[in-house]
Amino acid sequence: METSPPPTPRKTVQRQYSRQSTTPVRRLAPRASTSRPVSRFATPARSDRLSVVADDDEVASSGMDVDGDDLMDRILKSETVFAKSAEMQVTFYSHLPGEVKQVLRNADFYQDAYTGDIDTFTGFALVASAETCFVWKYTQALTGTPTCYIFSCPQDVSPIHMATPLHALVPYGSSREPGLILATPGGHVRFWDSLGSGLAGGDHFSSLSLELADDERVTTLTRADSQSYIVSTSAGRLFRLTLTSLGGRHHLSPRAFSRPQSSLSLSRLLPTFWSSESSSKSGNINAVALQTSEKTSLGRHVWALIDFRIQRWNMSAEGWEELELDDDVAELIRPALRARFSTASEDDSELDLELLDLKFLSSTELLLLVSYAGQDDSAGMDVSIQPRRIYAIVGLQHSAGSFQVKDVKAVPYQSTSSSGAPTHPRLQLLASGQIVVIQFGDTVTMCARDTDFMDRLELKSASDRTLGVGVMAGDSELLVLTAATLMKTWIDADAVKHFDPETGRANLVRNTMTQAILFGSYAENPLHFSFPPEVDEDALMSGAELLSTQVLQSDPSIIRSSHDLHAQMTTRKERLSFLIKFINDNAVLTKMSQRSRQKLATDAEVLYAAHQLWLRHNEVLATGNPHGVLTDAVQLFMESNNLNSFEDDMRAFFRFHVESLVSLLPAALEIVQKSISNDAQTLLVRLAQANNIVLTILQSAISYRHYNLGVYGITLPMIHPWTSSMRVINIVSELFDTTVKLVELPSADIEPARAKILAKEQLPELASTLFSCYHEQLQWLKSPGASDETGNERAKTDLEDRFKHARPEILETLRRNGFAADAFRLAEDYRDFRSLASLCHKDKVYPPHSNPNAMRIQTYVDKFKEDFTTELFQWYIEHGELRTMFAQNNGPYLDRYFAEHPHPNISWIHDLGNGRYNEASHLLLTDADNANELLSKHLMLSIGKLSHIAQSQEEDPHPINEDILDAFHDGLDFVSVHDNLLDDLKSALASIRVKQSLEMQVDTITKAKASKLGDRRALQNSFKQLTRRMLQGKALSVEDAADVLSLKDNDKSVDDYVTAIHLITRAHTLPEARRNSAVRTIWRRIYIHDDWDRINKTSGATDAEVNHRFFNTALCHVLQNVNRKVYLRPAEVKETPTLEEIASRWPGIPQDEVEALYRDYRWESNRLVGLGVNDEVFMKALELAHTS
User: Fold this and answer.
1) Fewest CB within a 10 Å sphere: which of 2, 420, 856, 941?
2) Residue 306, SS3 per DSSP
3) Residue 440 contacts residue 419 (beta carbons within 8 Å)
4) How far apart are alpha carbons 711 and 355 in whole angstroms?
């Protein structure tokens, strides 16, 4: 035992006595050089662990409490493993004495100060409070109850709160028990010559007092050798306590470090120079280190750490001391820290550097433990995990009279507000100085000096704390004394030496998680496992995923073999549960990608689903039915993958191959398909079993996933979700269809009927699972993550269409089979309002109050509002249930529906019912133009005209718009023309006495009323089509009506040409080019109506006879009855419609028909030219028309 820890954290002592006027340093937010807050990786709090995976079968393990000593005494045995990795193993070593446990059991380390140590040189351990010191031989506890020596501690007149005495054991060799030195911060020292006096009350001791200034305090007590002990103070002074023997008793003699007093000393020759250059400056001594363990003839060097200075004293064998070196190293260390850590502040006051401990390595090399201030996250991160102090090991080399920083290594520890009771960290060296061990209040860290290896032992309980660390003689083992137990840690120096930084960090992370799930859940384990600060993200993810896979595969290094498969699978579930809990507890879940988190969640849900499937199989086995579809499916999987080497394939699958759980789904379907040829009873039974397998796997996995989304930090949708792949969707869909087909087949056999009932009862669950699969897969296909995948857009569209068409069929199937409530629930859950509207009207629809679902409809209207009413109204319109729609009291919803989904042929009824005559008249006028039925057109125009007139009688009257009224008149005139034209055509059927088909009627009318179209076959076919529509009651367009009027034989009805011209010239909604072309076509037919060759033959005819011929032409009649503005001369009507105009006039007809119509129009034009009708004829007819 070399150094006794100070009674309180050095920072407290230093601030109290050396930095009283220092203003508290303001903490800064993290620097921009890091993407995450530094404190994200701080040592996590050991209380309030984060969420545990929800599982009905799991029982959470309780954390260790130092009060549970009786339980621990029964459970813990020598070499019980607390932690194990490739480089380190931690085991239970021994219990604490009963007296010590009794004291520590109720200790509050925030209010009651305790210190301790393990002196591996003497084999004794020590625990001390401000009042009492307990000492025992720890090796004795291995074989029995150790003897505990109890001593009363010396007291200061004005004791410091939370201060404990400094201590040192005095070795005498193996022949007798050691002695004990206790020193108070105030300089009062007690010495017991032998520990044996502690058995009798410890009253036999010697006392002395160090001559300290009023504000000076003792900071360390160090054993230099068995006769010399060094005391340091807060004023920068060192004292030597020398053990002497007088009268068979040992005594301590104190003396402050002094200069040599011989006649040859420089102090006598040059007293002024010596006193000014070699005297020690004041300051708080934080640590003392000896250069050699044993003194030589030249004495030994003593190194002291005073604030930011390092001193080296030569402690001579002759009894004097000489200060050889006193250097300030702060200005060397600060830039080195900033270069190594991006979190180190550039401002010295904010950096708040502290030099905490010192160890000697060689004549030119020292190790320093330093710390600097963590930076607060101003963004509002949890204060309990923000780092207060960040620690580092600094290697200093002294050569050529000065220090240089050799290296800076991070320490895997950051103190936070939740790090437990404050303590002053201390260094220990292991493996000949190659491994640095640091004792913190709640953690012991190990760092290799020459490799990147680092690890730590963190205490689990907030009521536990470290009291001492001792390096054992073998130099590869150390003992860790805590308030709960004594542990032994063995470190493989060779493994540390060959630590590979490329794979080592990942292995350390994985080992940490492995230890956490293997040992962390044990209540008797005092250790808490956590990641070091700045854990590597890739190492974290790969390690967690590999560990999760090992659990799934029952890796024997993690999962013990057990014949009880239920217990074994429960253990595996607990392992995975503890894994994600461990990740959450360490606040590193955010360092894991969504893909990695989902991999862990998928493994857990697969294992949970497999466990549920096994439990159901166990229930079946208990009924005496060992064979079934599950057994066949597992056998099929094992055979197809050449895994037939197991005695029990079923247990082998659930132990080692649950990763392939989804492979049981196609296997189950294949078994059902092979059973089609079996009898109905066997088929139905096997179908029900297959359904049960599929439902158990998918429902268990999906429910587990959604229940634990927050635990795994999952952001939906899942990436390529295994529970809804296209293969799974097809399997569930086929099983549903097969089940429906079988249960709906009539059967009089009672046994199949019973089997049907079982299969039939699975329909709702199959439908629900199928809907869930569709929805989940669509969510993934619609996500940004899937958008870049090849074929994604088509896959999404196809699946959307498939789901859209499948939903109503599946829901109707459920309703038809007596599961209407399930159908309604599914439609509600997936917001399939169209299906809801359909389901609500499967019985009586009108009147609405007679519908058994009337209350349900109103509930949906109130709950879903426009989302439901839109589909409801659409259903009414599509199914012709307008009376039901208007009979319901949904006026405001109807207004919004018609505003967003115009239906002018319907909405005018709603407007009339609400007295909105102006709106109704506009809608009726618009809809009448587009009406296909003549009767409807006539009705709408009539009602619209009346509505337009009626608006002047409203409470808020609108003036009558004459243009609109004229439009109604024009429309009604057109209907009248339409009726007259139809009557004229039907007159050709008057003489027919037998009933004719529609086509025969069309042919009869064409022969009788359009006899001149023989040379114009395309126009003749057009005439037939239009005649057919009229006979069917359809309303023709203006262009169509004009065509019929001008194409038919008008020998006795030349007024129809005039009517045709009037219709076209008033058709202002027609495109101008088409209207002009239609007018030319009518005039062209007027010109070719008469036999101009006969009319122009004047030989033997009187003038009166010639004039009479001209006057009786269709041309002269039209000129008399139309406005001059629409006159067209023969030369103006030769132009025929182009192919484009014809295609626009008859959209959708084949190109050959377009060309045939074009030829017929050209025939009419050529006929006009051939008849010789020119301007002279036009002027002659015009003259007669206006003079007669």
Assistant:
1) 856
2) strand
3) yes
4) 41
> Smallest Cα–Cα separation from 893: which of 862, 918, 939?
862
* Structure-block tokens of residue 319: 């009894």
Q: DSSP 3-state assignment of 577?
A: helix
Residues 6+ apart with CB under 8 A from 40: 381, 385, 587, 588, 590, 591
Match 């040192």 to its residue by tokens.
Answer: 168
- 123-132, 147-156, 273-282, 1153-1162: the lowest-pLDDT one: 273-282
- Asked whether the CA dihedral 274, 277, 278, 281 is positive or negative, the reply is positive
Return the bridge partners of 325, or none.
312
Q: Evaluate whether 1063 touches 974 at the Cβ level (below 8 Å).
A: yes
Helix spans in 997-1098 (H)? 998-1009, 1017-1031, 1038-1047, 1055-1066, 1072-1087, 1092-1095
pTM assigned to the model: 0.68
The position carrying tokens 């600094």 is 394
Helix (H) or strand (E) holding 40: none
Contacts of 435 (CB under 8 A, 6+ apart): 429, 446, 447, 448, 449, 491, 493, 496
Quote the CA–CA distance of 978 and 1045 in Å, as a whole number.
10
How many angstroms from the chain centroid is the CA of residue 712?
8
932-944 tens-digit pLDDT: 777 877 887 787 7
- Other CB atoms within 10 Å distance of the CB of residue 403: 18
Q: What is the pLDDT of residues 699-719, one digit of tens each?
A: 999 999 999 999 999 999 999
The DSSP bridge partners found for residue 428 are 437
3-state helix, strand, coil in the chain (%, to 5): 50, 15, 35
Of 728, 672, 725, nearest in space to 695 by CA:
728
Q: 424, 5 in Cβ contact below 8 A?
A: yes
Q: What's the CA gap between 89 and 631, in Å, rounded?
A: 44
Distances (CA, A) of 993 to 988, 990, 1005, 1030, 1032: 12, 8, 15, 21, 20
How many beta carbons lie within 10 A of that of residue 883, not counting itself?
13
Query: CA-CA distance, 780 to 798, in Å (whole number)?
Result: 14
- In whole angstroms, what is the distance from residue 92 CA to residue 74 CA? 13
Above 90 in pLDDT, residue 931?
Answer: no
Q: Which two tokens stand for residue 1002?
A: 């069309």
Q: What is the mean pLDDT of the chain?
A: 84
